[in-house]
Input
Amino acid sequence: MRVFMVTGDDLSSFRGGTIHLMEQAENLVRLGHEVTVYAQGRGAYPAATAVPIRYLPAPGAGWARLGTYNAALFAALLSAGLRRRPHVIHTRQMGYSATPLTVAGLLRVPHVLEVNGILHDELGRRGASGARLRLIDAFARLNLGRTDAFSTTTAEHIDRLDELYGVDRERAAVVPCGVNVDLFHPGDRAALRADLGLPQGAFVIVQAGSFYSWHGLDLLLDGVAALNRTGRGAPDWHLYLLGDGVERPGLEDRARQLGLSERVHFPGQIPYEQVPAHLAAADVGIAFYKPTRSLSGDPMKIYEYMACGLPVLASQYPNYGGIVERARAGVAVDESDPARVAHALLALWTNADQRRQYGENGVRAAAAEYSWLARTRLLEQLLERTVAPTAGRAP
Output
C-alpha cells in the first residue's frame, strides 16, 4: 500500500505521540508498504529514519499557525496525490482540521483516523470556553462521521467517543501502543549502574515519562515515604523520576517536605535513546494512574519496562495492572493507599527470584505481543480492510 500519514504534531519534540507515529510509519515500511509522513516544519525529527517526511510551512502561532499549516497541507497532499495517488490517507488526531479527510474525498481514496485522546475532555478540564468546545465537537463529528475507519488505543476510548458523538463501532479498531524491542531490552545491571552512577547495592525504583497529574507521582512519593517508615526491614532505596513537566516543582517540594530529598532524584528529560539503559539498570518500574482525567489510556512505559526485563508495579486499572498481571510481569496495587504501595515495594525487594521471574515474563510478552511490529500489524489489517472495497480506485 501507498500510505500518506498526516500529523499536526511537532516532530522535533520527541514525545510519546511522536514516537507512536514514527514507530507505526517505520514498521509499515518494514512490512513492505510505501509511507510518507506529513508534518509541521517546526524542526526535524531527531532520529534517523527510513521514512520520508514532508515538513510543511507552519509560521506564526496559535490559530495563525493552524491556518498556515492546513493551507500548506491541503496543497501538498493534493499535489502529491494527483501525481501518485495513495491507497489511503491516515491521520493522527488533528482536532481543528478536516484537511486530510477533504483531500481523501477529492482523490477518492479511503481515510483512516487515529484517535489517542478525547480533546473535548482534555480541554474541558482546562476550562476551555463553550465556543471552543463546540468547535472541537464539530470537527470531531465531521471526522468521525465521514472517515472510512478509525482506531483508538483502548476500547474505553471507543465507548467515550460513542457517548459524545454516536460513532459507528463497526468502523472502529483498537490498536494499542507498543515498544521497540530492538532498542528496549535487558542489559548488565551492574555495568549499567556503574556507567550511570547509580548505587550498586540499592533498591532502585524508576518512573519514566512526563510529569502530569494523572501519573500519580504524588501518590508514589507518599508510598515511598511509607516504605521509609517500615524500619529495620526497609531497603536502601532510591527513586529516579525520569522526565519533566508541569508537576515537577510541586513534586520537588513534596519530596523535601517528606524528608526524601536524598532518596528521590529528578534527572530531568533523558534523551530517548538513553532511556533503555536507565530502565534496565533499575529493580522495579512504576506505572500509576490517578483519575484526574476521564480515560486512563494505554501507557507506553509499561511495555518499555517489560522489554527491559523490569518488574512493574502498576495501578489496579485494566490498562495498567491488568496488562501487567496478564503478562505475569509484576504486581497491581491500590496506588491511593501508601501502606499498600510500601508493602508491595517491600515484597518485591525481599524476593529477588520473583523479581527475576517477572522480568523474564515481561521480556517474553513484549517480544511476542507488545512490540511495535506486532502492534503495527493490527494497523496494517485495519488499513487493508479499509482499502479493499476501493482497491480499484488507486493504481
About this structure: The chain has a mean pLDDT of 94. The two ends are 10 Å apart (CA to CA). The CA atoms of residues 69 and 289 lie 34 Å apart.
